[in-house]
Structure formats: C-alpha cells, structure tokens
Amino acid sequence: MKALEVRGVRKRFGRVTAVERVDLAVDAGQFVGLIGHNGAGKSTLLRIITGLLRPTEGTVLVGGVDVATSPREARLRMGVVPEEPALYPYLSAREYLDFVAEVRGVGGVEEALELTGLGPDADRLVREYSQGMRRKTALAAALLGAPGLLLLDESLNGLDPPSAARVKGALRQRVDQGATVILSTHVVETVQAVADRVVMLAHGRVVADEAASALGGGGLERLFLERLAETM
Amino acid sequence: MSAHPYLHAYRTRRGHRLAARRPLDWGVALLTPLVGAALLVLPVRSVFLGFLGLGDAALAEGVEAVAIRFGFAIIGIFSIDVYGALVRGGDRAVLEHLPVDPVGVVRYELARLALERGWIPALGAVLLVPLALEGSPVAWAATAGVLAGAAAAGWTVSALILLGAVRVAESPAWGPWLDLFRGHNLRAQAAFIYAPGLSLVVGGAGVWAAAWGAGALAQGQALGLVGLAVPWALAALAWAALPAVAASTWYEASAVVAEIDGRFEALADPEEGRRVYLDWAVRLLPAGWRVYALRDLRAGWRGRRGWITGAWVGGVGAALVGWAGSPAAPARAAAVGCAVALGTGLLPVLLSRDEPAFLRAWLPSGGLRAWGARAAVALAWGQAALLPSLLTVGVRHGLGALPALVLWVEAAAVGAAILSTLSGRLMERGIWIYATAAAVASAALAARVMG
Predict the structure, then answer these.
(1) Complex ipTM, two decimals?
(2) Which chain B residues are closer than 8 Å to A50 by Cβ?
C-alpha cells in the first residue's frame, strides 16, 4: 500500500485552474521535495491532500484511506505543518502539545519537544513566540503519534540554521523509521539537502519527478529553471 | 487524559488570559457592565416598557411584545455567534488539521458560547427589572424565561441549521433551490448567508410561542407554561439531532469555506481588495487628514466589520421603533439612535487598541491630523444610526419630526466620535472608560429625549 496516492487531481476555482491533472504515488519511507515557483499550486495541492480543499476531479488516499470520505481516519494517518500555523496563543507549547496528544490519543510530548529543540521555552505562552518557534511548535505537534505521512508547507522558512538542521535531522530520522515526508518549498537548496525524490510543479502541473540523487550539483536548480521556461 | 480535551484546553487558555489582566483592568471589567446595566434600565423602561401602569390587559400584551423583541434579538445575535464558532472561527483554523471528534468539538463550541455569551440573556432580564417592580414579578420571571429559552434555541437550532447548510451548500439536489434566491452569490455562500435567517424563523417561532406563554402567565393562566416550554423543546430536538449532522459536516465545512474564498480570490479585481466602505468620503476631508482617515477606514472595515455593520442593524432597529404609530415613536427612535451612535463610537477606541505596538513606537503619531481623521471616520460610521430612521419617521410622522431626530442623534454621534477618539489614547483602559461614559450619556440622552 502506498503512503500517499494522488489520482488525477484537478482543481479549478471558476475559470482559474490551480492544479491540473496531478498523479502522484509515494511509497513509505520516502522524503519528497515538492518545489515550484510562487503560485505553482504547491499549497493548493497540499490543502487537497490534507482534505481542507476538495478537488474538482480526482481522489487522494492517505495510507489507503480516502481523505474526502473518511476525514478523521485520514488525519489520524498524517501530521500537517501549514505555512502559517494556527495555534492557541494563550497556551504554552507544552500545553498545546498535551492537547494535541489527547486529541490523537497518544503520548510522546516530551520527546517531540526535545526533537524540535523547544524544551527550554516549552512553558512560555505561544503568543510570546517568534514565527520560527511557532513553526517548531506546529512541527512538534505534527510529529506526535508518529503519523505515517508528514506534510510540511514551507515549514523550514524562518528557522535559524541550528533549528533548521535539528528539524531536518528529526525528519530524516522519521523517514528512516518508515514515515513519509512531503516538504513543499520554493527554496531549491533545501530540497537538495534533504529529499530523496523531487517533484516539480509549474502552473499547476507536475513538470518533473526525479530521484534527487540523479540531480547532483546544480542540476536541480538548472532543471527547475528549464522546466519553468518550457511552461511559460 | 481529559474526557473533554477541547473544554480542558479552553479552560487553560481562559486561565492564562485572565491571569494576564492587571488589577485595575479587573476592577473596571467587573464594574463597567454593572454600572452600564444599571444606567440602561431607564432608557429601556422609556422605550420598551411604556405599558406599565396601564392595567392587566396592557401588561399581558406588553409582556408579549417585549419578550418577542428581546427574544428575536437574542436569536439573531446567537445565530451569528454560532456561525463564527462552527464555520469560520479561530478554533477551526487550529482544529481542522487534527483528527478531532466532530461531535465533541460542536458540543464544546456551544458550551463555550454559553459560558462567554450567557450574560446576554441575563442582561436582558436585568434591563427588564422594572417589569417586576411596577408590573408583576411573575410577568418578569416569565419574560426572563423567554429570554433563556431564546438563548437555548438560538444556540442549538442555529448550530443544526448552519451545519445543515454545509451539506446544502454543495449538494446538487439543493442547487436549483439555492439558484432561486442566491442572486450573484455563489451557491455555497448563499447557503451560509440565509442560514441565520432560517434560524431566526425556526427559533423565532419558538420565541413567539414562549412570548404568548409569558403574556398568558402575566394574566395568571398556567397554560402559559406550555408556551414557555416551546423553545426548550426546539432546543432539545436540535441537540438530539446535532451529533449525526456534526459527524458528517464539521470537516466538510473547511472545504466549503476554502472553496468560497478561493473562488472570490480568482474573481477578485486587484483594485477591489483595496476598496472599503466609505473610502470615497476621504476626499471631503482636509488633505493632511486623508491618509490617516483612509488607514482607519481600511483597518476598521477589515478588522471590525461586524461592529460597523452592527451600526446599520442598530439603525434599522431605531427605524422600526420610529415606524410605530404612537406620537412618542420619533422620540423613541431618537433615543435608540443615540444609543446606537454611542455604541458605534467604541470603534475608534478599538482601532487604537488594534494598532501594533511596534507601529506606535516607530511611526510618527500624526498628531492632531490623525486624531481629527479618526473622529471624522467615527462620525461617518455613526451615520448608520440615523439614516434608516430618517426614512421611517419622515414617512410616518412627517418632515416636522425630523429636525429633533437629526439634532439628537447627530449630537450623540459627534460626542461619541470626540470622546472615543480621546479615550483611544488610553488603550485598553480607554475601552472601559468610554463604555461607562457612553452608557451614562445614553441614559441621560434617553431621559432627556423622552422628556
């Protein structure tokens, strides 16, 4: 069974097409970098995968569960870090993680705080946090219960270098344990540093789907620019 | 583990929020509603309880009328509250990514609203205390019962109808029906727009029956208890039906709302996003004020739209009061209009509080020009308190009734604009100071206008 299957997904808003016939199958234990220019459709595709947006056509299965018809079961199988995480400002990170752990029916709060480096600040209210610390809180919440699929939308932006390295390490560790990570970003270097596979979106279409190892050196950036130029 | 994680997290958040308050804020926060309620008793007595002392038959009829008005207002307020809590509120943004139990979330949201908004029917009962003192305690208790029933029906019936609207929003079977009355709105949006109206009709039917019951009880007829129970029966039915509807629609609501937003984004003219209510009016101001006025118009419309549209709702309320045939109706409309203008006046204080601290620290304040522009903007928003009643009072009572109406409401609007702009400089504390002053002014103006 695939960790994620996106079958013939198309999304239109009136006359505007945001995502055009995307097919994607991702095995367990893969780190996929989803890259594309601003407005390429990355966030729309991620919102469809998380069930927050319904596709005009097509289906999404997470661990074999249809996101549209079984939203709760699908969410149990995934952890999501949105580009701008919505958190309760009047909870501390530890209290927020306790809440998410209760909702998921799992433990592991201390481990998640440790993995993301939030430990020393875990008892401060989220309203006092920087954007980077909010992202780390959302990431720690997504890691709770070790879901099979982690979806991260531009989630490494705004992290200081040590935090970014720590988070990349934590994600890599989860992938080695069999989880699947999909990291959406427009920063080519980030994908090159962590991903096993690169899926490139331009104007709502998948224009490249390659193993990262086949794109050594500046290959990814070159491919990105070439494919983008072809779609213009 | 907690049996109700949502409620447990809410209590923790509430505890932190309250702990962040300073002692002075506590005192002001506790005293202001009490003082405000005490001061509003008089204008409410003048406007809504004129039947007191006119005999038992008038008492029963008056109790029924006032219970209907207050009950409908409560259902209207709660149906909008429930929309915020279940469809577009901040909780949804946090919870929609998580594998939450939809039924538990909906129950938690209704419990939260009951805790946060329970003061509204209680305030209604306090404002109607003259009914007990000058009429009969039974009539007052029955009317308070109607308000409590309206609250219960308002929360539960609105929740059921709004969650049902999620299903209707994208259902092909309902599409042709929505097309009949959606105008230029998207189908999904039409379902949400008309849901509060349907809540008002269904919940209002319960209020109507309960108000009849209150009138009957005021006349000593025990049968009135049956009428009083109707909104509670509606609430119980809606509560029983909620789990099934919530389970199938709570998650779907995120997708429906995202669809509406995405469609509007795709349609949007880039210039359209910058346009706001009354922005054309800045050209009437001195050149140096315009940039500040435009800032306040944009910040107010985008951040406090409910408050601004609420001024129109209040203005329409004043217009309805002015439409009555009684010779006192223009004065009553003026009293309500003054209260609405003073209420709308809270906006500048809120705008001051909303300003990010770093902007206050790093940008020049703009001095008198900025404060003048803010007062002018508040005055412009306050016109909603007057305009609808100009029409109804003018048509029903003749043009001769208009000068007094205009004079009183404009005086209240100008006073509110100046006072609230000055109060805004005191930030959080200014809210309570202005609210207290507005309640006093509202009571004084009502007493003066009503003679």
Answers:
(1) 0.92
(2) 97
